[in-house]
Amino acid sequence: MMKKVNLSSFSNADFIPGSKGKIIVWYLINRVFFNSYLLYPSFLKSFLLRLFGAKVGGNVLIKPKVNIKYPWFLEIGDNVWIGEKVWIDNLTLVKIGNNCCLSQGAMLLTGNHNYKKTSFDLITGTIILEDGAWVGAQSTVCPDVICKSHSILSVGSIATSDLEPYTIYQGNPAKPVRNRIITS
After folding, report:
1. What is the pLDDT of residues 73-124, one digit of tens each?
2. 3-class DSSP state for residue 25?
3. Can you give the CATH number for the domain in which 145 is found?
4. Measured distance CA(146)–CA(142) in Å, rounded
């Protein structure tokens, strides 16, 4: 007889990303200053991220309607662009290197579920974007993926495994389509 998923047995009681108070206060700040159409300056957003434990470099541009789950699991380098409606669902570490771009609607997803268990247990994995990586509009980076130096995940693609340096990826799952050559 085949076993079935029983979501009533799901429990992520072992997953404690921070104190309830800290999570609630961050939720409100995220809602007002980040996941909003109001045009707050990026320096203010960077300050708020640092206030909640994120490591944030200089010259970071954060557009409206960005959703960041837990800033204390976030590292952002220098000269990073985060476009409108980007979702950083960082249940664990997300590390964004220098000169990276996350285009509109990109998603960095560090959580998944164990489909082999009847209880559908939570699984988390880090995401690393090395220097110069570009995650295109409406693209998704999955848990335990490294987008290596200057790799590109093109529009609407899904990275389920590491992206090699200076390589452009496309599709679902993303496959290499050509080399990235920077000419000037």
Report:
1. 999 999 999 999 999 999 999 999 999 999 999 999 999 999 999 999 999 9
2. helix
3. 2.160.10.10
4. 9
